[in-house]
Amino acid sequence: MKIGIDKIGFYAPHLFVDMNKLAVSRNVEPEKFTIGIGQEKMSIPPITQDPVTLAANAALEVLDEKDKEAIDFVIFGTESGIDSSKSAGVYVHDLLGLNPYARVIEVKQACYGATAGIQMAKGHIALNPKSKVLVLGSDIARYGLDTPGEATQGAGAVALVISADPNIMALEDQSVYFTSDIMDFWRPVYSDKAFVDGKLSNEQYISFFSKVWEQYKTKSGLELNDFEAICFHLPYTKMGLKALKTVLDEGSEDAKERLVANYKISTGYNRNVGNIYTGSLYLSLLSLIEQKDDLAERSRIGLFSYGSGAVGEFFTGILQPNYREHLYVGKHNNLFSARKEVTVPEYEEIFQQTLPTDGSTVNLDINNDPASICLSGMDDNKRQYVNKVK
Ligand code: HMG
């Protein structure tokens, strides 16, 4: 039985800052951000969007009534969750009106959470072939104003429906995963910003890729030439390229050219959104399959997932016949073209807005947020959500 990705939804907030302008205001040459880091625009979440609403908006655009009935497992991958106890997925389950006979959990391992969710979903479908699993990857990446990590912030979510006989991509069985306790990036529970050892994190990303790739080749008998494209977790778009370059010489001239060209296409959305942590790899996959019109059916795509701390995994999928008919290219083009630029001072002001932590009531103005699902306020330490289209 084939199991894999049946649908992919995506949502990013409607505001962005231009990286050229951010560079100027930080006294940095714009090319450092646009070429050295490889980012053009960075998504800015207004206070009316949080990881719950981002995920719910990503799922809303793809789920039909049949999906809502068949989904009996929701796995919410995030490292910027809003509650240490209650799963963010339970709010999404309600906002989307999903079947109540469902299991809902939140999983965390930095940017690896959604990949763990997909692999769990695969097992669940193998035992329950008629059911579907909704895997969400949703995060707001925050390092702080005027910090080295600032240029690698972002916000957004992906929603993946995992099912038997999937319409988009069948996941292959071979997969290699690796864990090692490393302090390259972490966020203590008392902090709303991540701490990072930037240089170490870059080194570990490459080192984990090398470990899982070498083991994958031994286990599967496949080689670089067997891949149409490799998608990477993209904290910033230069990072995946650094990893890809470490293996390119293993391929034929044709393969090298193909993999570099497809890598570029796979970074298009991420370059304009920034790091969305656990959803980043799947945003890259979406960018590739939506923006490369002639990507052949039955192509094998490699996927490298990395979550600091750290866990890495390399796995693969095969694009299914007629997969293009199941994408939402028009919707995503509209999402990008409807976004509104904010100035650097406006971004800084939004960045510093906070919700009350003393139980007081606040009502947020959701009229300026075009998203269907918004955070409308807080009352008695409870977040209030609105689905404008329910
Ligand atoms: P930095 O120290 O400001 O930058 O931090 P840099 O000095 O290393 O420069 C960056 C690149 O720009 C360099 O290129 C420069 O040469 C180049 P590289 O040597 O790396 O190829 N550069 C220029 N290029 C063109 N024109 C110029 C110019 N000037 C310089 N004029 C860093 C960069 C990424 C470390 C920082 O932003 C950071 O700490 N970010 C957060 C950590 C991160 O993203 N790490 C990535 C791997 S870890 C990961 O992926 C997991 C993560 O997603 C978290 C999770 O799992 O939850 C982060």
UniProtKB/TrEMBL annotation:
It is an enzyme of class 2 (transferase). One of its GO terms (molecular function) is hydroxymethylglutaryl-CoA synthase activity. Pfam families: HMG_CoA_synt_C (PF08540), HMG_CoA_synt_N (PF01154). Its EC number is 2.3.3.10. Residues 2-165 form the Hydroxymethylglutaryl-coenzyme A synthase N-terminal domain. Residues 178-248, 257-353 form the Hydroxymethylglutaryl-coenzyme A synthase C-terminal domain. Keywords: Acyltransferase, Transferase. It comes from the Bacteria. Belongs to the thiolase-like superfamily. HMG-CoA synthase family. This is Hydroxymethylglutaryl-CoA synthase. It comes from Virgibacillus litoralis. The lineage of its organism: Bacteria, Bacillati, Bacillota, Bacilli, Bacillales.
